[in-house]
Amino acid sequence: MTPWNSANLGDSVSSIDTPALILDLDAFERNIELMASALKEKGIRLRAHAKSHKCPEIAKIQIAKGAVGICCQKVSEAAVFVEAGIKDVLVTNQIISPNKVKRLFELARSARMGILVDHPKQVAVLLAQARVTGLEIDVYVEVNVGSNRCGVSPGKDAVALARLIAESAPLRFAGLHCYQGSAQHLRLPAERKTAIQEASKLAKEVRDALVAEGMACPRVTGAGTGTFLNECDSGIFDEVQAGSYIFMDRDYSENQLETNDLHFEHALFIQATVMSYPEPHRAVLDAGLKAFSVDSGMPAVWKRPDLKLTKASDEHGVLEVSDPSRIALGDRLTLIPGHCDPTVNLYDALVCIRNNRVEAIWPISARGALL
Prior knowledge:
alpha/beta, 8-stranded parallel β-barrel, 24% strand, 2 domains, 29% helix, TIM Barrel, 9-stranded mixed sheet, 17 strands
């Protein structure tokens, strides 16, 4: 924790200490409403991905607006949300550590919990704990539909794994997890559409094979902010796991949109200050690698095409200045993070603003939850 807060309730935006993570509440709320309305119209469930925000306050808003629950990536992350009162959590990851499995089942005493598997050994570890506790959890088979990360290959191995779960009470076979993560940032709509058509084809093959063997497939879940409309229109997916739509980052904004794509607004920003201006065409911000992630490239400077972040060190961000007359020492600048998820994980709190004032400060309670 930092020794003092960057802002207090009621502060003007100009008085927020920097660097600070800022949430534009108006844009955020419009993004929430846009997603909720679109999925309601299509009859598709939203299981909002909380790894993007790690903030129980946001999860509660998403559920109040129609999300059936949340998903996250780590058991420790899930624990934060369950403790905050979230009652339906899917950990979209595999676990093999007996300690993590034990903790997952402890959470199942207070909430409906789900987990992914892609190997029989994972099922065995889960089953052993389920029999000790007598508790049920949802278990999904993760199918590799193109990301080539986790996931069992489509075909007989996926079917066999689903049958193993179904025969391993009190585990519940909950369906298929089919996430094509590498499609989320394909820039052209046609590229994204093609990738999801192939993912949907593979998901359908596994689902149909299960049905052919007399097994129900309760759900096919997956999708992300970049492609969720493609999954919705596939006729295969009945739940999507979008997360970044609430914030939108610089990288997502580089995706080209089709006419029917939804336009989500930038709502997450980093406020920074020009703390050094040693040369006319080089200025330095007080925000660097400890204030924003660069795995997807540098942040952009909001509404300032004359300024470009060219490099960053731990506590410094170096700006290339094309028009020195438009910037001065002490100026406050607003950055759009390149990748929202790891950037959020660098902060203790979101400073929520409306009408140029700090309206709320929401703790990022699951930051650093890596277990």
